[in-house]
Amino acid sequence: MKICIDATRFVIENAGIARYIKNIVAFLAHVTAPGDELCFIVTFMRHYARKDEKIAWLKKYGSVHVHIIPGKWKEYFWEKKWAGIYFKRWFSGCDVLFAPSYFELPVFTALPSVVVIYDLTTARFPKQRGEQLSARLTRLTRQAANRADAVCAISKQTKDDLVTYCSIDPAKITVTLLACDPAFTHTQTKRTNTLLTVGTLEPRKNLITIIKAFQKLPDNLLKTWRLLIVGGKGWNDEEILSIISNNRATQSTQLLGFIPDTHLAQLYARAGLFVYIPLFEGFGLPVLEAMTCGAPVITSNVSSLPEVGGDACAYLKDIYDDTKLATMFIQYMTDKTKRDTLSKKGLQRARTSSWDKTARATYSLIRKTHKEHV
Description:
Layout: E1 2-6, H1 8-12, H2 17-31, E2 37-44, H3 52-58, E3 62-68, H4 71-78, H5 84-90, E4 96-99, E5 113-117, H6 121-124, H7 131-147, E6 150-153, H8 156-166, E7 173-175, E8 194-198, H9 207-215, H10 219-224, E9 226-230, H11 238-245, E10 253-257, H12 261-270, E11 273-276, H13 285-292, E12 297-300, H14 305-309, E13 314-316, H15 322-333, H16 336-350, H17 355-371
Parallel strand pairs: 1-2, 1-4, 2-3, 4-5, 5-6, 6-7, 8-9, 8-11, 9-10, 11-12, 12-13
């Protein structure tokens, strides 16, 4: 069986889907049956987007076919029937298409296909990215889920949302939970008085509630604890940046921007407390990363986060209640025993997930999809 994987997002991005593709490719290569083959297709909107070092990495696992499609034409091209003649040429000799993003699933391709869907946040919160853009992204998600032969959902929450918002048959959807990159491991590093949070600077990550809660801490804790915010620039982040620069705890708050996984793992390992309270998540990988590195975790009791954290996290029930969150900060910052208990539970919980397990479940679905079309 020759599996074609669209690796475009891996090459042109650094976080999110790019990290998923990096791990699923590396582990699929180890779990596929003898005689199976991986190959990759990469499409660019412009020549300068090409990153040869990432293409070279993909070549360790299979052949790579690169195509340039002007940005204004890609989505139009992807949805036209006559484009099928190009896909037939590009996918020549392939048996099944694995699309790790709904952006990379053409409307017309003769190959049986498996698509990965991460969340339906644009359907749930259309105003956060603008209603016009959200409507388009939701439409693309719905189209991809409908035309694929099988769907991987990264959590039960995402599966439920696909049924609710896209009317997808539940039997068509397989839940394949995420895992941590091997860069994230537990070390015996001494923990410091740092409150760490990770996430792109955008409204859904609910950073404003975290910052408001932190500035409500008593003076003795603000003098001894620091708030570290890791995450690249997102959208609608003006209020977030403003409150970071102008609040009672500004001197104890540091915005670090995007951090590579190897350095991020060190921050998790040294964090005295990790907080992640988004409005909604398709999975919530930072929670799993923090637990894997032994950091005690406070998170929100919404969407897929209880799936990830189980009984190993402290949960904020009202995600907008900064006063309650401040109280939780004080409880854990002043009680090392409580932090150690969460840390131990988190490490145990994290051991139940692995990319090997995820890759095997994904490969099983790809193989099943192929057999149904032979």
